[in-house]
């Protein structure tokens, strides 16, 4: 059997609960597809701070380095919110992981399942039939990582400084990811920038336009980020792939995710060059419901599915997971976050949802 | 009679049509309140380019300098879209106007009138009873204006660079504007930043927190911009005043405006220290419907109302305009953009709407 090494980083809050279900799904895939997932667990986020003194301990980094992919739960919670930002679970774990492993391409699907349109805060007529937007976000450049960055001066003379830089190769590689993804979807890329104000966006738009010529089968449009934030609300179905620099992607992917109304359903992938990647739910650690066994494990399970697809090339197994999730939703299985008290719905807890998905596999 | 000097910059597209109605409303205010508005017209945007070779001609700057306030229409259109960004109507006129006149405080109300909830793409249950969010956006600092900014290098070695800087005094003065505004509203300020990633946001949050102590009667909360983009969609009624740096304010104010479903209704003010200000509709120049006499003049009329309130201290007249607009909406007057084919609605054109508002004054 083919074997893949997975670094398992459950993290905080509901992370360990939903991770347990994703791991059971991996067990089922092992049996069915004659593959092996060798898993090593490691601490991250608040669990890293509490057990090893840091949000991203050295041991964890080494376990990730030895792996073919990282399956990530979620991090953060009120317990660690008073730490300095650099040391907090989210920032202290996620940003270094992205940088160390060169995870430059963040894929964030915002999918509204036709059976779940009721959960969206958008009107039925705006989202009838669902929508499916893929945000492709640049993840290791721009204002997140460029220098200079810091606070200079003293007292009232202090100045806070951040820098947004993009080089041509940085823009090129993320643009290719967006176009390649669009080819497997509805063949439309809308590139988001603020080229009427930002120089980095002027370069962004020029480079994206150039790369676009290599993909004559894909339609390319450009939109300012402020208009993008409006158009998502007005008519999300107009979009297929949204190509964004780091910060615009942070904002618009969250807006798009919330428009679906079911954050607990959305997976994400952060890819390096080659096949290495990190996979995590788009939602947070939901400390308010942690430990109750009621969290929705679907985002974590779909994240495992993305890992099979993008890092391991197990397309058939990945498709099977996606289909199993769609099937249990059609069968009416609902965790509390997506339960709408409609006829035919069955309210289930975390492990019941996991079992239903495995049964459907 | 007290006299005020107004620089009237109608601009492009529907700008001149809706401006004509706003000026008729000013006529009516002159009669009723024994004041005088001395108006000087000037070219701006595409009209500036076509007539004087620049989006913001010198003559226009001088007319504005001689005025007590600027009443601005809207600029831009397909005719000028192929010009370099710096010379285009929007950027070439708006950014220099903001800088030259020190218009650091941008007030952008996103109000959904109870009678117009149907126009929003949000569900009835999310917006029942309407909502009223005021975005207070810093307008002369941050990534829009800080140096270094530009594209360096040649060919594939080029790097696009922007800088986001904020000083303590810059943050302090916009924070005071937000708290003062909140005092006249529901006494809540939510400050938007990205303090988990940006150094300028770390300083922003610290300074806002400090100023907040001077307003113990106003509740202050902080929210990351990505979460802000989500929360606006999920439950806009949770917000009263949103305090934002320049770019976050650009994005969130447009998102909030679109959530109301009636961009043609929303005014804005851009204020300098002292009483000088520029007043303009939040929507664009709508070239697709320009010249047909069907545009909604309400945003322009409410912008004139904000001018009376903030620059001229004519609070009574400003209140009267706001009330007149609410009244004609209650009476069922609707321009095409807000017409929902409901019982009791009367479809009217631009000048009929203007007349109805004047009659209600
Ligand atoms: C926690 C934070 C640093 C992070 C980001 O801004 O990238 C998060 O919001 C995300 O989108 O993954
Ligand atoms: C036209 C553009 C420069 C401007 C901005 O980004 O500020 C516009 O979007 C706005 O919000 O007034």
UniProtKB/TrEMBL annotation, chains A, B:
The keyword Cytoplasm applies. Binds 1 Mg(2+) or Mn(2+) ion per subunit. Keywords: Amino-acid biosynthesis, Branched-chain amino acid biosynthesis, Cytoplasm, Leucine biosynthesis, Magnesium, Manganese, Metal-binding, NAD, Oxidoreductase. One of its GO terms (cellular component) is cytosol. NAD(+) binds at residues 77-90, 284-296. Catalyzes the oxidation of 3-carboxy-2-hydroxy-4-methylpentanoate (3-isopropylmalate) to 3-carboxy-4-methyl-2-oxopentanoate. The product decarboxylates to 4-methyl-2 oxopentanoate. Belongs to the isocitrate and isopropylmalate dehydrogenases family. LeuB type 1 subfamily. NCBIfam families: leuB (TIGR00169). This is 3-isopropylmalate dehydrogenase. The gene is leuB.
């Amino acid at each position: 059997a083919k074997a893949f090494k997975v670094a398992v980083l459950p993290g905080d809050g509901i992370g360990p609960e939903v991770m347990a279900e994703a791991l059971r799904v991996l067990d089922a895939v092992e049996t069915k597809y004659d593959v092996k997932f060798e898993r090593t667990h490691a601490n991250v986020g608040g669990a890293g701070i509490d057990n090893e003194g840091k949000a991203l301990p050295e041991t964890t980094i080494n376990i990730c380095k030895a792996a073919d992919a990282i399956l990530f739960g979620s991090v953060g919670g009120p317990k660690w919110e008073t730490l300095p930002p650099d040391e907090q679970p989210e920032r202290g774990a996620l940003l270094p992981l992205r940088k160390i492993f060169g995870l430059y391409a963040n894929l964030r699907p915002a999918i509204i399942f036709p059976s779940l349109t009721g959960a969206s805060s958008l009107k039925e007529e705006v989202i009838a039939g669902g929508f499916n937007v893929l945000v492709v976000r640049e993840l290791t450049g721009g204002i997140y990582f460029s220098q200079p960055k810091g606070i200079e001066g003293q007292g009232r003379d202090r100045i806070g400084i951040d820098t947004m830089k993009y080089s041509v190769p940085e823009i090129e590689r993320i643009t290719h990811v967006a176009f390649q993804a669009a080819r497997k979807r509805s063949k439309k890329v809308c590139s988001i920038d603020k080229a009427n104000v930002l120089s980095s966006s002027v370069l962004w738009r020029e480079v994206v336009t150039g790369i676009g010529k290599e993909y004559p089968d894909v339609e390319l449009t450009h939109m300012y980020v402020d208009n993008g934030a409006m158009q998502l609300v007005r008519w999300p179905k107009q979009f297929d792939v949204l190509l964004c620099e780091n910060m615009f992607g942070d904002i618009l992917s969250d807006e798009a995710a919330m428009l679906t109304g079911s954050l607990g359903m959305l997976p994400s992938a952060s890819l390096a060059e080659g096949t290495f990647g990190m996979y995590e739910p788009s939602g947070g650690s939901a400390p308010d419901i942690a430990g109750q066994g009621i969290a929705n494990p679907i985002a974590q399970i779909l994240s495992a599915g993305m890992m099979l697809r993008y890092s391991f090339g197990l397309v058939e197994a990945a498709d099977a997971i996606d289909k199993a999730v769609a099937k249990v939703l059609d069968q009416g299985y609902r965790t509390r976050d997506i339960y709408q008290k409609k006829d035919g719905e069955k309210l289930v807890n975390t492990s019941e949802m996991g079992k239903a998905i495995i049964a459907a596999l």
